[in-house]
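W.,

You were right to be curious about this one. When I first looked at the sequence I had no strong expectations either way, so I just let the prediction run and decided to look at it fresh. Below is the sequence, 480 residues in total, followed by the output.
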Amino acid sequence: MKIHQTIVLILLYGTLYSQIQTFTFEYVTEDDDRLWDAIETEDDNFYLVGHIAEPESDKYKGLVIKISPDGQLIDERIIEIPNRTYDIYGVLQDTLGSVILCGKSSDTTPEMYHTNLELKRINYALETIDSSSYLIAEDKRIGGFGKQFGYNNDLLFTGGLWFETPPNVYAFILRLNYELDSIRFYQFTIGSAGDQIKQLNDTTYWCIGWFSQFLYATLDTSFNLIEYSIVPDRIAQAYGLKWDSDSSFFMAGEWDGGPDDDLGMIRQYHPLDTTGHIFNSWGTEGIYDYPAPNGAIDFQNKDSVFVGAISPFQPFLWSDYPSDYVILQTDSLLNIRWERFYGEGEYYYELMKVLATKDGGCLLAGTRYNYNGGIKERDIFVVKLNSEGLLVGTNEKPAIEMREALVFPNPGTNYLKVRIAAQHKQSTFELYNISGKKVLSQQISGKWGEVNTTFLKTGTYIYKIYNKDGLYESGKWVKQ
């Protein structure tokens, strides 16, 4: 096993934050390493959770990684459940000195049914303090799930139960006490996977999910449906939600209101009443931009909201083209301030979680996969950025490239598309042949443009993208 960390230190950021440390961290093994969730604990360290498995194997082992505020590996633990496949989907900060691992295990048949919800409380030395395992049902398996603390440190879980026979999937809610003992389990007779849950008061719970439509819903203490409203603006799935008060929240989800599925953002001022909510969408025509599936939105200060995505996203397990981590920042009214792209060459980057850090920066946590490597195995890849979405303060070349413009498809044929970061309203695209002669120039307005290349010969070209506001990107583009 070999683990790489590229540490980038240190930016002094005025008087608002004493230090913002930035870094890249890679967890590289010969196995398939998958990250699902990440948190920053009260002692300022980061905990990453997921699974590790032999390439192309369904026999997972739980994985916990602890790294320091400057991106150094502190500790790691691989947790195996005998004769089971085990995956850690989430992590919650517990009382001082411990965290709760939220995972699932199942049999090792191809269908992976007979699923248990697995909960483990571990201390900061990654030692297990206590644990509980709950068999949901013999004929069901759990999809992804949401987790949250309720009142009195109760634990709330919501997700989807997948059946071997139609109608295939129903939503569920599970409530446990602080000792990890089950208090109530409820399976809905309509609906599908639930996404988010919150306890509003002593008698009322709130959740979001599919119940014949994508709905906000309130529930009583027995989890019976009280009231609901339709999630507005064609948000089709919630992949991140952060409450800023007892009644209002920010949400990022999959938006299907354009020609391609893109990212939609909502600021909701009431759990059910959508009157006066704020909406914004983000993405580019002709490319599949997808919110980070396990936490696409986060903030410490609601006037500096970080939203993350995968671009372009491939909705299959193994990609055959490159992608980028995408991070953008909005103000409290969802106006986009800036956008950055992080990627490199022959890697498919799958961003899973955006985490706003206590120092004012943000952490991007996910995996990357070399689709030309011949082996189906991923490595965990983490980028810690400052408040402007930058890696700063080093003379060493980081393990990832930051860009403010993208060119795709590459290689291409009779056209190419140019993707420009949101902060640049006007830019110029130029293409040069291998001898340095300019063969094409086109003005780009807004965040994307299409360039006709039918008249060009096959071969390698050099592109430049620039404007007077400091944008400058260059690279190779190949016409096939």
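Here's what jumped out at me. The chain is about 0% helix and 60% strand. And, maybe more interesting for your project: The first strand starts at residue 2 and ends at 13.

Coffee later to discuss?

I.
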